[in-house]
Amino acid sequence: MESLPVVDLSSPDKKETASRIVHVMETVGFLCLDNVPGYNIEAEEELMEANKWFFSLPLEKKLSVARYLHNNKNRNFYRGYFGLDKDYSSYKEGYEFGQDSSTCPGYERESDEGFPLTENNVWPQPDPNENEDERKFYTKFKETVGKHYMRMMSASVEFLQLLAIGLGLPETYFHHLFVPDTLSTLRLQHYPPREFAPPDKAIEDGQVVVCETHVDSGFVTLLITFGFTGLQVLLQNNSWLDVKPRPGSLVVNLGKTLSESTGGRIKATKHRVIDPGGE
Question: The pTM is what?
Answer without folding.
Answer: 0.92
